[in-house]
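call fold(seq) -> tokens
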Amino acid sequence: MDEDISIINQNTRNENIKNFFKKNFKKLLFIIFIFFLILISFFIYESLKKNKRYTLAKKYNDIIINNKNYSSPYIIENLKFIIDKKDKVYSPLALYYLLDNNYINSQNDINLLFDKIISIKQSDEKKHLIIFKKALFNLDKFTENQMLETLNPVINADTVWKAHGLFLMAEFYLDKNELIKSKEFFTKVSEIENLNQSIKQDVQKKLSREFSE
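ret:
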């Protein structure tokens, strides 16, 4: 008897499964189609991304290696093109090459390029490094408010660049002879847990040399 009931239940389940697929065949077919469409789109996207990265790499390396063969306007135009593409690797490299070789003199233009690089979606560590470099570039040009506004994302976050940002602000105030503010920021650096020993030593020297009574 139990065996007969088991067979009946199994047959019932099989019949229910068959009916389910019959009733929902079009829906299931559509879901499978969408799944494969998404999968194909993903592979196409990844392929295009790799091709885009390859194109930028080729353009960047060509300019760096053969820079003597190109005019300054050509180099600037093509490196700005790379920056506009907002690639995590080659866009920052393009900006740094322009800065290191003094191709752009306008502070406003340089800061606009920095902002493009900062807007790239990337880890906080990399983003904060770029923000720090922007502040460092503008150290002798920015006002106090501009420096604080620029460095706020760095000094208020828990990344390796926090200490560097605080140290830079301390140096900024020290250069302006605002000793109270400078000491405040040097002290903030010294209070960071697991502080890099090199930075720690630099801070201690500064506090001892500049603020000892």
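The mean pLDDT is 83.
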